[in-house]
Amino acid sequence: MDSVVSDATAVDTAVDTPAAASEAPAVPRATIPAQPGRTDGEPDPEDGAQDWQLDHTRAPIATKIVVAGGFGVGKTTFVRAVSEITPLQTEALMTRASEETDDLTATPDKLTTTVAMDFGRITLDNDLVLYVFGTPGQQRFWFMWDDLVRGAIGAIVLADTRRLTDCFPALDYFESCGLPYVVAVNHFEGTERFEPEDVREALTIAPDVPVVIMDARKRYSVVETLLAMVEHALSATPE
Questions:
Q1: CA distances (Å), origin 42, targets 37, 38, 121, 128
Q2: What digits encode the pLDDT tens for the residues 60-110?
Q3: Are 186 and 160 in contact (CB under 8 A)?
Q4: What are phi and psi of 62, to 5 degrees?
Q5: Residues β-bridged to residue 212
Q6: Which secondary structure element, helix H or strand E, spans residue 89, and what is its range?
């Protein structure tokens, strides 16, 4: 019995000695290969990050703007021209079922129509982000307007001088709900160009409502219209 205990003690002592520990093989530590760029999950300025993304004390001011108007007036083109992301579009091919309700006289080449909404985003002035929602133009889709307008700071009513009456429903809607809006005349090639005051008189809108002439296909023109909308919304509801 004594020999067994002495042998066990000898084993324990051998294990606890520094010499024995130094003889144990070293376990290699796992290493993580270096990755190019930032590895801490933070945005990299070289990747095009905005200033507000690099400064955690700042937060972007996100605002919502609605683009409305008649059928085929250029709302989808407006959103597509300005969006810095791939715009969300809900377009469907037009069929003969809509021939009696959708007037294609002014836009004979139009093959698709928005059936829900258009959505795009643009960053202005580094930390001002605009979310742009385009509404469907046909009367059968107007029931979605209440949801699309909720939370918006203002609206842009697109108008075509060849059929100004098509934008009356949008004007009446925003007047009734008290949402600030501007009128943007989308000038189509081959049509007569009118002055903003002439359009204002034809639509009988208030003097404080901005009227701009623009081209929905050109990004700079759309940006100027958005800036006019933001400025008007701030002056109408400064709080």
A1: 10, 7, 22, 20
A2: 688 999 999 888 888 889 999 999 988 776 655 555 545 555 555 555 555
A3: yes
A4: -95, 125
A5: 184
A6: strand 88-93
